[in-house]
Amino acid sequence: MDREPNHGHCHECGITHAHNHVHENQKAVVNRLARAIGHLEKVKRMVEEGHDCSDVLVQLAAVRSAIDNTGKVILQDHMRHCMVDAVAAGDEDAIEDLCRAIERYMK
Amino acid sequence: MDREPNHGHCHECGITHAHNHVHENQKAVVNRLARAIGHLEKVKRMVEEGHDCSDVLVQLAAVRSAIDNTGKVILQDHMRHCMVDAVAAGDEDAIEDLCRAIERYMK
């Protein structure tokens, strides 16, 4: 979604942005999470039904990979929008919050 | 669960084990997966409700960590039971299957 010329307060960053603050990938992120949940439910059924451990591990690795990629999309989205505005507004708390989140996410 | 003295065919490894082949941690694994699903559903709701990206990333990292730990439990369980029997029976296919799964899981 392109940035709109109107201004609005962002409940996420706590600052006023020069656009209606809608994460362009919010729907995509929700869809990715919904797919990851469905995939994880399938893995749970596999374990309940006693499927081969190797197969379970392969499917679990696929879910983990999907979650990793979703995290990357959230981070990129946040960098492109909230962070750009936070930096412009000199909002160092928002930047530090994200740095802490990245540190916890990357480890 | 201690190994039982009776013999049974294992549908997972395809070989006959010197015990009723029940993964001792199957229930624990199912419970871990159920918790991870619930946690991921919470993360999805956070995104839908527009929560702070940093908070979403922290929760997503927690789910990933839970999935990693579940994979470890599955692997350890498999090593302690199926693999011990597969090695004893000279079932190299089962060993190779697991090695491939580990390779995909670790990357």
Brief descriptors of the model:
homodimer; mainly alpha; disordered N terminus
Descriptive report:
2 copies of one chain form a homodimer. Helices cover 69% and strands 4% of the residues of chain A. Chain A is built from 3 helices and 2 strands, in the order ββααα. The first copy, chain A, has a two-stranded antiparallel sheet with strand order 1-2. In chain A, α2 packs antiparallel against α3 (92-106). Chains A and B meet through α1, α2 and α3 of A and α1, α2 and α3 of B.
The helix/strand class of chain A is mainly alpha
**Distance between the first and last residues' Cα of chain A:** 32 Å
Q: Approximately how much beta-strand content do the residues of chain A carry?
A: under 5%
Number of E strands of chain A: 2
Strand order of the largest sheet of chain A: 1-2
Task: Give the overall form of chain A.
Answer: elongated
Secondary structure layout:
Two copies of one chain form a homodimer.
Chain A: E1 8-9, E2 16-17, H1 26-48, H2 53-88, H3 92-106
Helix pairs in contact in A: 1-2, 2-3
